[in-house]
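Quick one, tokens below:
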């Protein structure tokens, strides 16, 4: 065992000498490995970071949450002209489902509306994501509060002019002041602030809670009515955990069809969008990104492998005399084989480490510039190192075999 440790140390010394004595040649040869490891680990780190961000953004929502509306989250077999004729879901349908659907934790009603500006005294915050929603959303959306509260069922049903602010909106309007009880203006009306949400961070899918405000949906219904083209209603359903989702969706479909008086043979004029279907779609995209990243990086790793093999063949030729002397002094073939094999692996790992350092630098830049947490995980570091070692092993095997099979007499004579 001690012999092999000495062998490893000697191989490391030869690898460092190859770097120092032939800097340009070695670095150019290692460039393929460096770029290959940089490419694949950068892609994997980006995908992992994206997946982590998606998980974080959706962590407050149950993946079985249903968005019942006239639009589909994904592609549909129904022609567009027919989909455009679908009616919006209504508040009455929301109350019907709320009172009749089984195995449900919460049923809520929300309006998708255009962005607005909020004003407090002389301060104005523009481009605010306004979320008119019923009181059940606090449980459906998993909202957490920094201060204050969400509006209750009575305030929601009556459409009381109260509002809950995201952290950035509260800071922009009130600074260090306590916003609870303060009045601001929205839609030309005066609202009383009753709560401020905890800071969430930038959302991957556009708005986060930080840049959103929540108000009772019935306030907007009372102000503009139910037949406003600028508002898109949606019924939110949060099923109980562990239920049969297929049976649950069938129950929702049956009750809404009955409420709309749809006859047998008529298609559903609404869509049941399950959040898990959206996350599965995102997972599919992430998988494709991983696959494409591996293919692109594979070419770089292939070029890097040829570069390492080239270094090793040159190294064998330069040290032919030394190999002959080692063998004449009793060095076995496997000793020579491992010596060059270790050297190839060490050189490749050095190239891989350079690539990993570059990914680490890129991750720091992206995290600071884009406010996106780009994470280089321990798993990806280990994967990059192992990949580099495998490339070195594969690339160095043929030069190592050729070195181990040299005839000592011929090797010494050739080197003289």
């Amino acid at each position: 065992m001690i012999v092999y440790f000495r062998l490893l140390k000697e191989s490391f010394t030869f690898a460092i000498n190859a770097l120092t004595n032939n800097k340009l040649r070695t670095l150019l040869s290692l460039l393929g490995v460096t770029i290959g490891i940089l490419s694949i680990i950068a892609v994997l780190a980006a995908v992992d970071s994206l997946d982590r961000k998606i998980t974080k953004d959706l962590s407050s929502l149950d993946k079985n949450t249903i968005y019942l509306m006239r639009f589909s989250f994904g592609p549909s077999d129904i022609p567009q002209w027919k989909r455009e004729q679908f009616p919006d879901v209504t508040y009455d349908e929301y109350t019907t489902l709320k009172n009749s659907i089984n195995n449900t934790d919460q049923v809520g009603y929300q309006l998708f509306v255009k962005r607005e500006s909020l004003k407090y005294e002389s301060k104005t915050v523009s481009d605010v994501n306004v979320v008119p929603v019923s009181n059940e959303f606090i449980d459906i959306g998993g909202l957490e509060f920094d201060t204050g509260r969400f509006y209750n069922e009575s305030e929601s049903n009556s459409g009381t002019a109260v509002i809950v602010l995201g952290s950035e909106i509260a800071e922009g309007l009130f600074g260090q002041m306590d916003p609870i009880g303060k009045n601001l203006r929205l839609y030309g009306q005066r609202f009383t602030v009753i709560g401020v949400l905890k800071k969430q961070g930038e959302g991957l899918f556009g708005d986060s809670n930080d840049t959103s405000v929540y108000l009772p949906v019935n306030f907007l219904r009372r102000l503009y009515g139910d037949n406003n083209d600028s508002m898109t209603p949606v019924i939110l359903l949060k099923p109980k955990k562990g239920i049969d989702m297929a049976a649950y969706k069938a129950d929702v479909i049956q009750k809404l069809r009955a409420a709309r008086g749809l006859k047998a043979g008529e298609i559903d004029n609404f869509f049941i969008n399950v959040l898990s279907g959206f996350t599965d779609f995102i997972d599919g995209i992430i998988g494709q990104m991983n696959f494409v990243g591996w293919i692109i990086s594979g070419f770089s790793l292939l070029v890097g492998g040829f570069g390492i093999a080239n270094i090793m063949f040159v190294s064998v030729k330069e040290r032919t005399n030394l190999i002959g002397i080692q063998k004449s002094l009793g060095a076995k073939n496997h000793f020579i084989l491992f010596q060059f094999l270790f050297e190839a692996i060490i050189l490749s790992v050095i190239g891989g480490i350079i690539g990993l350092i570059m990914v680490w630098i890129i991750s720091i830049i992206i995290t600071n510039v884009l406010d996106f947490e780009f994470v280089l995980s321990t798993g990806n570091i280990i994967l990059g190192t192992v990949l580099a070692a495998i490339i070195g092993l594969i690339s160095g095997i043929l030069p190592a075999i050729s070195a181990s099979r040299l005839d000592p007499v011929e090797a010494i004579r050739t080197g003289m």
